[in-house]
Design a protein that fits this description.
two-stranded parallel ribbon; 11 strands; 16% strand; globular
């Protein structure tokens, strides 16, 4: 039996990845800081408590060796070098990166999006050949680029598949974009304002999709970068309608021709230009075939968000969401704008 070690096993992607690998016949060691077990994992999944920041604890978790190490939380040069240092005991690695490493032909990235005219205009769809941001430690995007650079350079010692994930969704997410429409529906908001006529597209990446790519990459060692997104990239309006359908409500869309007005019309998916990725490379190199469209996975995501929100302020339930997006639910400002229009 081949052995897999999964770092960040009880995170959003990790839970699905452990289950997928175990079903595929791998002997899985699930490593997390809490050392918890997901009830859906088979009983023979070995659970280990360790912090990947602790080199000694990570080395002990790997033990005498494994065929593949799957890393959900790697970031920056240090983590890359930490993984490479295990090359003698690890056959290959599968590591989660991000589509935020991409840079458009004018040098715009996710890091410049707050500047006037700074949102990147990528080709549709984006392939893995698209240029990437300069590596560094200034931001999440530059840190992921640094991670990629180090691992790709060390491919002769540790083959690594880097999966550039899009807007990740599914249960256990600490920053679920779906919260925006779920809470509005729970609050009885039956009109919503959508900037750019609700046509923004920010390619989602479900945990089922990413877990399938991990499952396929694990027995196929190689040094490669692959996009990791769902087979479809719905618009904001389509996402909203799909969540309405799951929750059994009807909502009227009020469409703005342009950008949000003082925050009104903005959602966690709102972008002035599309971010849509190509999956041809994963199909060609791994034999990947789609396992679930975005709407197919929404029932479990919505149920998880509703359960976490029950009886709690949304900022308490999702503090990282509040930090990342600020006041997502300024209904007073929205109502004032609707009255003036």
């Amino acid at each position: 039996m081949t052995r897999a070690v999964v770092l960040g096993a009880t995170g959003q992607i990790g839970r699905a990845a452990v289950a997928a690998l175990a079903r595929d016949g791998w002997a899985v060691t699930a490593v997390s800081r809490g050392g918890d077990r997901d009830a859906r994992w088979p009983g023979d999944v070995r659970v280990v408590r360790a912090d990947r920041e602790d080199d000694g604890a990570l080395s002990e978790a790997v033990g005498e060796g494994c065929d593949v190490l799957v890393d959900m939380v790697a970031y920056g040069e240090r983590h890359a070098r930490q993984l490479v240092s295990l090359a003698g005991r690890v056959g290959s690695a599968v590591v989660i990166s991000s589509v935020s490493v991409y840079e458009d032909d004018e040098g715009r990235t996710f890091d410049t999006q707050s500047e006037p005219g700074g949102f990147p205009e990528y080709p549709v769809p984006i392939t893995e050949a698209q240029r990437t941001i300069r590596p560094g430690d200034a931001s999440y995007s530059t840190g992921k680029a640094a991670l990629e650079r180090e691992l790709l350079a060390a491919g002769d010692r540790l083959p690594a598949t880097l999966l550039r994930a899009g807007a990740i969704h599914g249960p256990y997410c600490r920053t679920p974009r779906e919260l925006y429409f779920v809470k509005r529906n729970l609050d009885g908001r039956r009109r919503r304002v959508l900037a750019y006529r609700g046509a923004s597209r920010f390619h989602p990446a479900g945990v089922r999709t990413i877990a399938e790519l991990i499952r396929l990459a694990a027995p196929r060692p190689g040094t490669r970068v692959l996009n990791a997104v769902d087979p479809d990239a719905p618009t904001v309006a389509e996402i909203a309608a799909a969540i309405d359908a799951v929750m059994g409500v009807e909502t009227e869309d009020v469409l703005l021709d342009g950008p949000p007005v003082d925050g009104v019309g903005e959602t966690p998916w709102t972008t002035p230009a599309p971010v849509v990725c190509d999956m041809s490379a994963a199909e060609d190199q791994l034999g990947y075939r789609p396992v679930a469209r975005y709407a197919d996975t929404l029932p479990e995501t919505v149920a998880f968000v509703e359960e976490r929100l029950a009886g709690r302020d949304w900022r308490e339930a999702y503090p990282k969401m509040a930090t990342a997006y600020g006041d997502l639910f300024d209904y007073a400002a929205e109502d004032a704008w609707l009255e003036r229009r």
